[in-house]
Design brief:
This protein is of the alpha+beta class. The chain is built from 10 helices and 4 strands; from the N terminus they run βααβαβααααβααα. Helix 1 crosses helix 2 and helix 9 crosses helix 10. It starts with a strand and ends in a 9-residue tail after the last helix.
């Protein structure tokens, strides 16, 4: 998978919003140490986390399975714009039959789990979908045969409060391995000066430190 941070809100927007409550704008240092300490104190320590909703992050997420997408969609306070199957399934029509155990070629379209039985079943499903499309069945009907491992991409936008919740839940060892990897990749894509907001979000800091060497910023 690949996670790219496209845009984010400067931290001073959050500190300005907090200062609005006390009318303490004159104490701002324009996003400096005093403002960062205020965000940490109010948003993290005192748990007035509604103030963190003024910070938003927009990512492009590529190469996750539709199974992972289902879990991502359970996080309600986010905006998702997902690759359309109506317009993109034609990509399979130009492909030759996928051979069993040829996981390297198949992974252009499916997420490989490492379980040979499961991954070969996905290849069979991929071939079935390809053949149905070649029969002239419309994408809107053919997509009912989509396998859960089929890759998709999306634009994903959420605020810092929702991102804390996402990272807390999805960095857990109990989470699906793929969405756990996604949580780590998202955390790594966050600007360094924003990471303090998420250090207490479940296991994310410990997990990300252990996996930094495995998931680089460019190919996460």
């Amino acid at each position: 998978m690949k996670v790219t941070l496209n845009a984010y809100t400067p931290l001073v927007v959050c500190s300005d919003a907090i200062r609005e409550c006390w009318q303490s704008q004159d104490k701002s240092d324009n996003g400096g140490e005093k403002d960062l300490a205020l965000i940490d104190r109010v948003g993290n320590q005192y748990k007035h986390s509604s103030t963190l909703e003024h910070l938003t992050y927009s990512f492009t997420i590529e190469g996750i399975s539709r199974a992972c997408l289902q879990e991502l969609a359970r996080h309600r306070m986010t905006s998702l714009s997902v690759k359309s199957t109506r317009y993109t399934l034609k990509e399979l029509k130009t492909e030759e039959i996928f051979a069993l155990n040829d996981f390297k070629r198949a992974e252009q379209y499916i997420v490989i789990t490492g379980n040979e039985i499961v991954d070969n079943a996905s290849i069979i499903g991929l071939n079935n979908l390809r053949n149905i499309l070649l029969e002239g069945v419309s994408n809107d009907i053919a997509k009912y045969c989509l396998i859960e491992s089929y890759k998709t991409s999306l634009a994903w936008t959420l605020n810092a409060r929702s991102l804390q919740n996402f990272l807390t839940l999805r960095s857990s060892k109990a989470a699906l391995w793929e969405i756990r990897n996604l949580a780590i990749a998202v955390y790594l894509a966050i600007p360094e000066d924003h990471k303090f907001l998420f250090h207490n979000s479940g296991e994310i800091r410990l997990v990300s430190e252990a996996m930094k060497s495995l998931i680089g910023q460019d190919d996460a």
